[in-house]
Amino acid sequence: MGPSVLFLTGKDSSFPVSCVLLTGDKMKSVPLVAALPQRFYTVVTDMSFRLPSFAVSTDGVCSGRHGCPSPREATPETNHTYYIMMKKALLTMCAAFALNLCPAGAAEPAQVERPRLVVGIVVDQMRWDYLYRYADRYGDGGFKRLLNDGFSCENAHLNYVPTVTAIGHTCIYTGSVPSIHGIAGNDFIFRSTGRKTYCTDDATVHGVGSDNAAGKMSPRNLLVTTLGDELHLATNFRAKVISISLKDRASILPGGHTADAAYWFDSATGRWITSSYYRDELPAWVKAFNDTDPARRLLEQDWHTLLPSDTYTQSTADDTPYEDPFVKGGKPVFPIATSQLLEADGYGIVRETPYGNTLTLQMAGEALEHEALGQDSITDLLAVSLSSTDYVGHRFGVNAVETEDTYLRLDRDVAAFLTLLDEKVGAGNYTVFLTADHAAAHNVTFLADRGIPSGSWDTGGVKAALDSLVAADFGVQDAVQAVMNYQVFLRRDKFPDADAFARVKQALVRYLTGCEGVMYAVDLEKAGSAPLPAPVLSRVINGYNAKRSGDIQVVLNPGWYDGESRHGRGTTHGVWCPYDTHVPILFMGWGIRPGETVREVHLTDIAATVSALLHIQMPSGCIGTPIREAVGAVGD
Q1: Which among 122, 146, 527, 534 is least surrounded, fewest beta carbons within 10 Å?
Q2: pTM of the prediction?
Q3: Statement: residue 34 has pLDDT above 70
Q4: What is the Cα Rg of the chain in Å?
């Protein structure tokens, strides 16, 4: 038989902390874990007391006070009067409570309130300071709207290394880190077999919309669920989850295992494609959009500065040795003849221009319209990653006119997309967050020319030196499989003896620690006891996946990075330093309280925050915590 009486206890009726259930002559204290009126939870404790042990106090809390016998001393015989008084009081409260909770005609509990649509926007390689570096040149409808009408986490950081695209996008939508989610880099090695793999490679599937290798992709290397997966589970798969990016990994990993669709750009054909993991044929609307040849239409405009060239005072001169020109032997200057580059190099060139961002948001707009996202009471998820900022940053660096112009154009594109959301879904009916998968360093030569410590680490030279050391001291040839992700991967099959393997690692750690530009080298199996500062150590541990990461982690001095492929131009990312880890996190829209916080939060907190906002389970590997300041009613 169920409880016959329920009433609230607590000093503030707007936020009840517990209730009491009455069954026969027994009573149970029941805490409430959510505030009225949005949701009600009851978690029955294991403690059970005889009813006469309690009386109703003037502040609504049941206890052995105000003349009532204590719980341990009370008996039904000695407290019959209190029992009658208590039961009457409880029945009165129960009636009032029931009337308050159950309006006339209500047959079922109110539906959980959620936005119609959640939109995630990831700006690849966006440093946090870009929000302010070009602020006086942004319009009111893009980044400024997010800052003014939304909530900004001013001190948001990645809490792992290496800080690269695949890991960043996975972290955002899983709330997890490589140690758990398994995406240990853009590329990594399965240590059990020694097989190197790209993060989303999958030979068991084929391209849809393309017959080349670009379509042989899936999320099968991902070991945990994403926000989209959990939204599907929470809605019995009635929600729609769509993911879009120029980069395959930046679309596939955010979409998760159960995405309705993930689309990415095929540089060989200039078309948006997917794989047979998701579907057997492209939808008609994708085919129709592809048929308009949108990348060509954008590239044929050529790339001119958006504003007069002499106004780009936040950037270096247009022609500097820190930038990598599109044409070998040419100059990295405006205007850039993207129409000619299209004919010479193909559609892939759109990635390295701001038109790639425009193209991506056009595709997102098509999905919004034709997939009817946010058009019913079931919350949908649209994940959009803007990759061109990363390509432009790698080629030109963080101080170039090209980079500034890319962000000025992106600001306008974001403003137009937010306006489209207002029109299609309705302002206040959607929640949007904007963040980055990682940031980026200043060009090392740019820093050195200004007397700032910096340097370039030659991974190829390091690998050769380590191979020579092991061959000379231990008689093992070709011992190093790879140096990537700032980690050394040894060929473990060449060291069947565990003690010998430990001695080899110790020797390599000692050698690396003595190399110029190296601050620490850590045997990853012993990382927990490594003498590293706590913020660095925690990132190393979070980034280490025993089955997919290397054997030794290399931590470079601030200002240093792996420059082997950059030849002194452009920039890159991947280390623990703030210039690589400090990124924007902005929320706006339904359920978001405008404001900001300067306390440290992490990229892993995004998934936890969105899950809390939607009242769904966090992804299965989530280690983040909700950003309380960003959500809830004002005054909580």
Answers
A1: 534
A2: 0.83
A3: no
A4: 29
